[in-house]
Design brief:
By secondary structure, this protein is mainly alpha-helical. It folds into two domains: 80 residues; 59 residues, LysM domain (Membrane-bound Lytic Murein Transglycosylase D, Chain A, Roll), CATH 3.10.350. The protein has four helices and two strands; from the N terminus they run H-H-E-H-H-E. It has a two-stranded antiparallel ribbon. The termini are far apart.
């Protein structure tokens, strides 16, 4: 019996040991399972973040493509707009030069008619007799030809060209220097 008690005792000890081992093994297994679950959760979160980043990357690529397309079309629009501006500028310059020529022709025509009315030049087509004092004076010396504009005075013209009023009076043989007519041609001698 002692022996059977010993065997029972040994078996009990072994059972305890096996039970402890089993409990110890099951607590380690439980800990490992919890660790695996935590790792799976971390893996799922990381996958979710990766998917979010991939979607953001695709959105940014799409946005970049759209911006590049817009930039390319705006370059085309900019160059065509610049071409239109250049063409309009050229046309504007042509119109301005035509306008200046027309204005000068009108001023010359009105000046001639006013001179005829005022009696400064004889009517008719004799070009030698119809020359103004400014043209005659310009043949003798160097200087500038000035067409009197409305409201201009002899002293203002002299100041603008930095010459004395007496030089203008003498060069143009003006009899009444303080009565200038709009469109009248004056020879301005160089100072």
């Amino acid at each position: 019996m002692k022996q059977s008690l010993k065997i029972i005792g040994i078996m009990a000890v072994l059972a305890n040991l096996l039970g402890c081992a089993t409990m110890q093994d099951s607590s380690e297994t439980t800990q490992q399972q919890e660790d695996i679950l935590l790792l799976k959760e971390d893996l799922n979160r990381t996958k979710g973040k990766l998917e979010t980043l991939e979607m953001e990357y695709q959105r940014l690529l799409h946005e970049l493509d759209a911006m590049q397309g817009a930039a390319a079309s705006s370059k085309g629009a900019t160059s065509s707009t610049q071409a239109r501006i250049d063409e309009l500028d050229r046309r504007l310059n042509v119109l301005e030069s035509t306008r200046a020529k027309d204005r000068q022709a009108i001023v010359d025509q009105l000046s001639g008619k006013m001179a005829d009315i005022m009696g400064d030049r004889p009517t008719g087509k004799s070009s030698q007799k119809g020359k103004s004092a400014a043209t005659k004076a310009s043949a003798n010396t160097t200087g500038y030809e000035h067409i009197v504009k409305e409201g201009e005075t002899l002293s203002a013209i002299a100041t603008a060209y930095k010459v004395k009023t007496s030089a203008i009076v003498e060069a143009n043989k003006l009899q009444s220097p303080y009565t200038l007519r709009t469109g009248q041609k004056l020879f301005i001698p160089q100072p």
